[in-house]
Each structure stands twice: as C-alpha cells, then as structure tokens.
Amino acid sequence: MRLLASLAAAILALVAAAGAASSTGSSVLVVLEPELDKRKFSTFFGGLEKRGYELTFRAPRDATPLVIEDDVPKFSNVIVFAPSTKSFAPDLLPQSLVNLLSHNVNAIFTLSTAQTPLTSLASEFSLIIPPPHTPLISHFPKRSLPPTTIPITPPTSHSILTSNLPPILFKGIPHALGTNPFLVPILKAPEESFATDSDSDSGADALVDAADKGGEGLWAGSSMGVVTGFQAHGGARALWVGGVDVFSDEFAKTEVSKGVKSGNAVFCQDIAKWAFQESLVLRIDSTTHNHVNVTHDADNVPTQYTTNDMITYTTYISKWDPESRRWTPYSGINDLQLEFTMLDPHIRTALPAVRGTPGKYEVTFRAPDRHGVFKFVVDYKRKGWTHLHSAITVPVVPPRHDGYPRFLSAAWPYYAGAISTSVGFVLFSALWLAGDAVSEKARGKKKLE
C-alpha cells in the first residue's frame, strides 16, 4: 500500500511538472485587495491561465490559504495586487515575503502613491521610493490622456521584452535604483517626466529647488525606474511595478495612437514570464575535470593534480524551454569564463562551447607552478539571466621524489663543469702519484752506481 502511495505521488509530481510553464512550478497565489475587481485584469490573468498556471485568489487579510506552512511553500509564485492595503495577514508581512525568496518562490509586487508596508519592503530591494502622494506625471507628448497616465516607449532591444513593442501606458509611482548589483532595470521613466504632488506645472518650482539642493529630492528624468526586477542569489525573482493599472484591461485596450493599441498586454506577459522563471533561466547540469587525454569515470575523478599538469575542465549547461516545458542543452553563452583560484585567480580563461555537442563547454589549461588548495570556479552573472555558480576544490601538489627529471638541458654547462673538474682531479692525482714513483726509481739507480 505504501509503495502504491509513493508511486501515485511520483506520478502526480510528474504530471504537475509537465503542465508547468515555469521552471519552478505552476501554482500562483494572487493576493488581491477587495477594492480591485479581478475581472478588470482578465487579460493578464487569462494569459497566465492559458500558459498553464493555476491561480488561487485571496484577500490580504485572509488567513487561508497560507503561502508557506511549516517552512514549506504552498505556492511557486505570488502576485501581490494590494497597492493600498496597510495591514496584511501574518504570512504576508514584509519579512515573510522576503523569506519566500530564500525558498525559491517568485513574486510580483505593485506599489501606489500611498504609504504601505510594501513601500517599506521595497527598500529591502535597494529601491528608493519618493514621498507619499507624489505620482509620476508628464505633459509630453501632447495627448488626451491625463498627465498621470504616461505612454512610455520600451527599449528597442531588451533580453526580457518582446522587440518593437508599442508604448506602454503607466500610472503610478516611480522609484530610484540603488547600487545593488542584483537589480534588473526593465522599464524607466521618460526623460521629461517627474514626480510631484500636483498635476499642474506648479510642481516645477519644487523641482528647481530640489535640483539646487541635490540629493534624493530630485525625482525627475530617465534615471527613475517604473518596472524593475530583482534576481536573488539563489535564483528566485521579484518584480516591482509602480502601479497596478499597468496590468489592467483598460490600459491593454487603450490606443496610444490612431489604430495602435498599447503594448501593455504583451509587456505584462513578458515581465511575468521573467518573474516566474519561464525566460532567461539557466542551470549547470554537471561539471567534471581530468588530465588531458585521460578519461575518468564519474566516480573516479582525480583527487589532486601536480604542478604544471595539463587539465581539462568540462561543464554542461541547460536552458529552460517554456514551449516544450523541459530543460534543453544550451550553447549560446559566448562570454563564459573559468577561474582556477587560490584566494586570488591564478588562471582566468575563456570557457567556450564545444561545437557539435550542445550544452558542452570545455577548456584545457596548464596548472600553475605553485602548490596549494585551488578551486575551479565558474561565476556567470548577467542582468536578467539566472546566476550560474560552481566551485570545485582540488589540491595541487609538487612532483614526487621520482617525478623530477634526472637531467635538465638547461643545466648542461654545470654538468660539464662538474665532469671536467672530476676528470681533472683524477688526472692530477694520477700524475702526482706517478711522479713520486719515477723519482724514487731515479734515486735508487743513483745509489747503485
């Protein structure tokens, strides 16, 4: 009976993985505040369900369903559409949400001009939020929309976004980016936009004063972000959006120019794909190292190397394919590097892909002429992509007593000097001894005469 239960659980896990567009899972908890009608976000939620996600809705103050129970996450992804909520259930407090990232749970957060716990949480991700009730406004270009509803042209080429998207309609609050290297800028504010507590041009005086003072008082220009991602060290992803209206059906159907709808519908699916680890997801399948031209079994990897040995290092890398929903070998990394380190890198070399073998990267190098405990280190970090890290420790030892060459070609002058000295000594000793014998015979002949 127990065997049948285990088999059934394994089958269910395989079925769930097969239906997941995300590399981490298909379950999504949507925290939706009561003031928001989920029917107004049907385009966004419908796109998620079409890709195989299972959406579960919950209010911010509801006690169930729990996001995490007994330190085990119940959902693979979380969407927090509660920009104005000021109190949350215990499992949705800021510290609890940060803890989810350590369990590889992805999250999408939306902000508003109101001061909420999510505003404080944003600072944990190195996002600097302007004072409350200071929305982003722009009077350019001239349009029929309010100044707080801004069309933003997305980057023409961005690894996360679809190419050549129409302008994105945005309404909400901007944020300044800190120096955290894990931040991934996705959409920035227009150059002519600024954050102020007024929709009219009277706010320009505040901008002038802020510019004279310098510092964080100046909330203007393209240095501000409106949609920013965060790639955690363990692989989990968080997405911060300055306004929930970006996901609304109203913005998705609004025309930004005659006959051209906004790019919000496609844009929201693009950023959700990234946040839920559908796109730009890599992993290291295996790594191995061995002496050149020597094949070792997986259980018989060299435990040490000798100085000046020729070493071959090999790694296999895969990329998640959301269409086939499986990991596929990936050879598209052109700037992968390998470091052979002992405190500091002694060798840093390119780790190129091997032609004809998808997903295989290999390099051969000579071990340094220095013994110690070294590491093979692969540390690949690029904005938007999964961080790849691998470290294997291996000692490098001096040659054994019988491992040194007996004769060195560079030492022949010394060999010749030692041999000539020895030969000279023998000849001198022989002549010296022979000379004494001849003199004794000569003196003996003289005595006989």
From TrEMBL:
Residues 298-434 form the OST48 middle domain. One of its GO terms (molecular function) is transferase activity. It is a single-pass type I membrane protein. One of its GO terms (cellular component) is oligosaccharyltransferase complex. It is found in: Endoplasmic reticulum membrane; Membrane. The chain crosses the membrane at residues 412-435. The keyword 4Fe-4S does not apply. Pfam families: OST48_MD, OST48_N. It comes from the Eukaryota. One of its GO terms (biological process) is protein N-linked glycosylation via asparagine. Its main location: endoplasmic reticulum. InterPro entries: DDOST_48_kDa_subunit (IPR005013), OST48_MD (IPR055459), OST48_N (IPR055457). Pathway: Protein modification; protein glycosylation. Residues 28-275 form the OST48 N-terminal domain. Keywords: Endoplasmic reticulum, Membrane, Signal, Transferase, Transmembrane, Transmembrane helix. Component of the oligosaccharyltransferase (OST) complex. Belongs to the DDOST 48 kDa subunit family. This is Dolichyl-diphosphooligosaccharide--protein glycosyltransferase subunit WBP1. It comes from Rickenella mellea.
